[in-house]
Design brief:
By secondary structure, the protein is α/β, with parallel strands linked by helices. Helices cover 33% and strands 27% of the residues. The protein is globular, with a radius of gyration of 20 Å.
Length: 368
């Protein structure tokens, strides 16, 4: 069965067309490289109410299988299904309707300029032009695109192109069947993060999603993705640096990173000195992308939101603000949904890790 793109969401997600009607509750499922997160929301009077959430480390579940591809594709379906079944059970998730995320590194998102031609001509031209930007044969991907509003008079039309490998889509189908969930849709995690952190905020914002293996920078203007760029630097790189620099094992290095972060205390400066060059290098790359974007547009980036598990590093926000020269915050996706007041301090502490899962769970309620 073909999977058409939804037209109600900007940009479109991949909709499993045999499902219809809006469910009363949905679970967002984010299978990361380090851990898997789930968030179940109940829809009530156009509000999203948190019912439950949970996280489970992937270690011990996901094992590489030679010859089955790279990234997410290299793991066995049955291992992923077992992981999902356990995290859903332990989190007391009751919803069967689910929305799942494609890792940003596994999909392709690019903005393509076109001359001022008709929409019909653009729709005919995009698949041909996409061959220049998508690094795998178009027969192996599912494409979607949307025309972006120009911020000022221009001789060109900007089109946001999205491509997801068909192999990835079919893998999600198989996993869903093994797990016993009903997949409502899948989408590239970039758009889930935008939904959970930005919504309809018109401010031009750069979102830095710092994951375990990679970091993704997304520029959002008036709620629409304008730029997406990935860096092959993640929080695991910091753990590895501590291992090598201080001659400790991975478990101890991870604990030191989380507990001490970029500390300026004399007794902890050795840890900071190991991580600081890597963080500084990443921030310089981010700054370059932001400056290049600002140079090409009249609507400059006004703020930077950090999210993802790696963004919880102590001292990172302050260091980023000094390097980027703009307002820098750590996004809190739980602020977009209804949560019990007594657990809000705890949710704020863990919120960066749940941006994707919350955005996925909001998919059926919001248009962005």
């Amino acid at each position: 069965m073909a999977i058409p793109f939804l037209k109600k969401i900007i940009p479109p997600g991949l909709n499993f067309g045999f499902l219809s009607g809006k469910p009363s509750r949905v679970v967002g499922i984010d299978i990361g490289t380090y851990s898997t997160k789930v968030v179940q929301l109940r829809y009530e009077s156009e509000r999203a109410i948190l019912e439950t959430y949970g996280e489970l480390l992937n270690a011990g579940y996901l094992k590489s299988s030679a010859g089955v591809g790279t990234g997410f594709l290299r793991f066995l379906d049955k291992d992923i299904a077992t992981l999902l079944q356990d995290v859903l059970r332990e989190s007391k998730v009751t919803a069967q309707d689910a929305v799942l995320a494609v890792p940003a590194a596994s999909g392709f998102t690019v903005t393509i300029p076109f001359p001022k031609i008709s929409i019909q001509e653009i729709n005919e031209a995009v698949p041909l032009e996409a061959r220049k930007y998508v690094p795998i044969p178009l027969s192996e991907v599912t494409l979607a695109w949307m025309i972006l509003d120009n911020e000022a008079p221009s001789d060109t039309i900007q089109v946001l192109l999205i491509a997801v490998p068909k192999e990835m889509i079919e893998k999600f189908r198989r996993i869903a069947e093994l797990t016993g969930i009903r997949p409502r849709a899948i989408e590239i995690e970039t758009f889930s993060v935008v939904r959970s952190l930005i919504g309809r905020d018109p401010t031009t914002t750069a979102i830095i999603n710092m994951g375990h293996h990679s970091t993704n920078l997304t520029v959002v203007d008036r709620g629409v993705v304008r730029l997406s760029h990935s860096f092959n630097h993640g929080s695991q790189e910091l753990t590895r640096a501590i291992e090598r620099g201080l001659n400790v094992n991975e478990e101890r290095a991870e604990a030191m990173k989380r507990e001490m972060g970029l500390s300026d205390r004399i007794e902890e400066r050795e840890i900071t000195s190991v991580m600081l060059p890597l963080i500084t290098s990443l921030l310089m790359e981010i700054r370059h992308i932001i400056q290049t974007y600002n140079h090409k547009t009249t609507r400059k980036i006004q703020k930077v939101d950090f999210t993802g598990g790696g963004s919880q590093l102590k001292g990172l926000i302050e260091l980023a603000a000094s390097h980027l020269g703009t307002e820098v915050t750590r996004g809190n996706p739980f602020s977009r949904i209804v949560t019990p007041p007594f657990i809000q301090p705890m949710l704020q502490e863990i919120s960066p890790s749940f941006s994707v899962a919350i955005g996925l769970a909001l998919y059926e309620l919001t248009s962005r």
